[in-house]
Amino acid sequence: MLIGLDFDNTIVCYDHLFHRVAVERDLIPATTPATKHAVRECLRTSGQDGEWTELQGIVYGPRITDAVLFPGVKEFLAQCREACVQVTIISHKTRYPYRGERHDLHAAAHTFLEAHGFFTSDTGLSPESVYLELTLPDKLAKIGLLGCAAFVDDLPELLAEPAFPAGVRKVLFDAVGAHPTTPEYIRVTSWNECYTMLTDEEVLA
Known about the structure:
38% helix; Rossmann fold; two-stranded antiparallel ribbon; alpha/beta; 8 strands; 2 domains
């Protein structure tokens, strides 16, 4: 049994970090709500699309050490390990930012995971169980190739991709309740709810 997890905005929460870095760089008013979505919309509506792209490279690169985990994710991993369920991380992430300084985003992600103790016996994860794919098609292919029973992602559009592997349970991680419930996927708002749902759906049976 294998459960796949996305990385950015599913395991790692960047809301306050995006806001903090954007304010530090005088890109947005400090009164902008401290969410990734609000920061992105503020920049885009003011014609700063390029700055938004560069901001992502900074946040996902050298400033990722200031990001935080979504509550309960490590407990979720420990529960899966206790239940003898394997977990893997599969993310779509370019190696370097499209704009700005040339930071290695893959190395930054691994550094974050190691710093937060993900490669310990309690989680069941290792560097070899983390796949950072360069393209979206590669990510979808990896989900299918590894034979995931379920995949947890924060993007409903990814779960709706025609190329999403058949037979894989689709789980939308929606911590702020931004998306509606649909028959296309199971929506959860916390990692505790995610584990309970996977148990109730007998995915973890």
